[in-house]
Write a structure and sequence with these properties.
- By secondary structure, the protein is of the alpha+beta class.
- It has two domains: 2-84, no CATH class; 88-119.
- 20% of the residues lie in helices and 45% in strands.
- The protein contains two helices and six strands, in the order E-E-E-E-E-E-H-H.
- The longest helix is centred in the last third of the chain and has 15 residues, at 89-103.
- The protein is globular, with a radius of gyration of 17 Å.
- The mean pLDDT is 96.
Length: 119
């Protein structure tokens, strides 16, 4: 089993729990991580609310550092979703599209690189 992200095939590395799985790229080694962890949580309904399904993706990549005490460090990016039971698939797809557009934007790069939230 594998997933492809930006033309890189990530292979199944570990089923860390029944609700979580980890994939590794060909660049992943003992000393340099290149991982994607996918997780899900089923909705927990109550008498007053149908609940939300939760899903997340966590990307971890080891990089060389410049001007730091240690020579290497991990860059981590997490994306999480909380989708109420009954939400239309089209609404979920639209939000995914918007998130993808943001992640590809200069605003996201400025946020990740310099913590800029007001541009």
């Amino acid at each position: 089993m594998s997933i492809t992200i930006d033309s890189v095939a990530y292979s199944l590395d570990a089923q860390t729990s029944p609700t979580s799985v980890r994939y590794a790229s060909p660049a992943n080694t003992v000393s340099a991580k290149d991982l994607v962890q996918l997780a899900r949580t089923a909705p927990k309904p109550s008498a007053a609310f149908s609940g939300v399904a939760r899903a997340s993706a966590k990307f971890t990549r080891t990089v060389d550092l410049t001007g730091a005490i240690t020579p290497k460090g991990d860059i981590i990016c997490e994306v999480s979703f909380s989708v109420p039971v009954g939400a239309a698939d089209a609404d979920v797809v639209e939000l995914c599209d918007d998130v993808g557009e943001f992640v590809a934007s200069a605003s996201c790069e400025a946020l990740a690189k310099a913590g800029k939230i007001n541009q």
